[in-house]
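Cross-posting from the modeling subforum.

Setting up a comparison between two proteins and wanted a second pair of eyes on the formatting. Protein 1 (sequence, then C-alpha cells):
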Amino acid sequence: MRRHNRSNDSMREIRIAGDYIKHPAGSVLIEFGDTKVICTASFSEGVPPFLKGSGTGWVTGEYGMLPASTHTRNQREARKGKVDGRSQEISRLLGRALRASVDMSKLGENTIIIDCDVIQADGGTRTASITGGFVALQLAVNKMLAQGVLADNPVIQAVAAVSVGIIDGVPMLDLDYDEDSGAEVDLNLVAGADGKIVEIQGAAEKLAFGRDKLNELLDLGFHGLNALFAAQKKVIEL
C-alpha cells in the first residue's frame, strides 16, 4: 500500500484555495498532498512584438521553486545569474498548456502571465502548477469580464495535468517524490476537459515499456484528470 493508504488509482488529497493573494487579478494556492504551489495570474495591456497589430492576445507562464521548498535549500536563480534549465523547461510547458485553454482572438491585444511558485515540493510540482494555473487564469478572466475590460470570455475549456508512472511493474497515479524518484516509467499528461490531449511527457527511466502499458497509463491519467477538473470547477464556481 502507498503512503496514506492510497490505492494505485487514487490521487493525493487535492486542495485549491481561490483568491489566495490580494493583488493579482487571479490567484490560488493548490495542494497535491504535500506539494504546495502558489499560482497567480497577472493581466496587462499589450503583447509581444511578434503579435503587435494582430488583434490577438498571449498567455505565458513562469515557474520557480523557493529555496526552502525541498529537503535541502535551493540557491535562488537570481544568485546564479541565469534561469535554471528545469525551471525554463517547465515554464514553457506551463505556457503551452494554458494557451490551449484560451481563444487568443477574444483576448484582444492583452497578455496574461501565470506565475507558479513552489513553496513545498513532494513530486508533481509541474502538474500542480498547470492545474492551479488554469484556475488562476479563469479567475483573472472573470475579473476582467466583470470590469468590462474583456467583452467575451476567451476561455475555451479547463486544462489540467497529472503524473502517472510504473513502479515495480505496477502503474500508479499521481506520484509523490519518493515514488517518482524510483519509478521505472515516468509520464506527465496534460489534457483539456474535452478529453483531448495537449501534451504528453514520458520516458522509461530503467526499462522500455510497450504500447499496452502506455494505454494503461493514459487511462489512469484521465481517471485522475476527471478528479482535477471537478476540483477546479468548485473553485471557479464560487
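Protein 2 (same layout):
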Amino acid sequence: MTFEELTQKITALAAAKGGLGSSIKFATDVGSIFISGDGKVSNADDAADCTISVSLKDLQGLMSGDLNPMTAMMFGKLKISGDMGIAMKLKDLF
C-alpha cells in the first residue's frame, strides 16, 4: 500500500468515526498523516496533541492487525510523544 492509499484509508476511517477530540499525527518515513480533533485528515506536518513515529510498513501492519502495538513499542518500532491517552483512543478509530 502506498502512502497516498494509506492516507485515503485513514481519511475514510476518520470520516466514519468522526473526531477523537484531540489531534494525532503519524510521522512516517515517507511523510506525515495528521488527524485533527474533528476528524479531518491531511498530510500537513502540524503540531499535534500526540505524535506517533512509525515506518510506513509498520503503520500498515498496525492497521491490519498484523503488528501488535505493545510489541511494536517494546521493539522500538513505534514511538509516542505527547499525550499517551490519545494514542490509546486509536483503537476506537481503527
